[in-house]
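Predict structure. Chain length: 247.
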Amino acid sequence: MSQKIAFITGGNRGLGFQTALQLKDGDFKVVIGSRDLAQGEQAVEKLRAAGVDADVLQFDITKPSDAQAAYDYFDSRFGRLDVLVNNAGIAAGTFPGTGPEHSATQVPSDLLHKVFETNFFAQVALTNTLLPLIRKSPAGRIVNLSSILGSLTLHAQPGSPIYDAKSFAYDASKSALNAYTIHLAYELRDTAIKVNSAHPGWVKTDMGGPQATMELSEGGKTSAALATLPADGPTGGFFHLGQPLPW
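Prediction complete.
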């Protein structure tokens, strides 16, 4: 099968949907994961109308049984997975915030656990579940949707664009996801699989809000680029529109 198989979690709207649109010219079968199957089916109709070879899988990143169901789906239909875009995630509050909305000393414990479960623990579990199928790809690609707000370097640097935009639960979960990118890329360094973190930009999504500086149509460009890297492309990096970001 020459067609590449891609799975985009949370692909029924926002950045995930835009990433799927960006893959329409790359000979991809794109499967979007959607918690709400009806919403996912509506998204697939729009993707197909735009020229994307798309299907939908009912999928909740926080349900371990759904991760196994995803493995069974791709294994039985295609026998492999070429691209995994870990797009699903939550912000848990007004985003991105202009101050210590969830400061390190005041963040509710249950909120911290909830954000980490969705943005980190579930991402790791899903990736590890699907990794045997990605290993069967001649050129596997794993894209972890991070954020510039996960950059420890920029958070610690007075005067940086995010120095005063601190929301501890979200930021820390993305820093942890970046650490997973580095460790997984190292583990897979002798394979054809490439693992990278993507900062999509501050995009006008439900999460980003209307005050964001990038249009929704631009939001999937970084993820799609990392999903389609050539054999000599980077691995273990953190990027926005082709430019490296500091960890």
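Summary: Residues 109-134 form the longest helix (26 residues).
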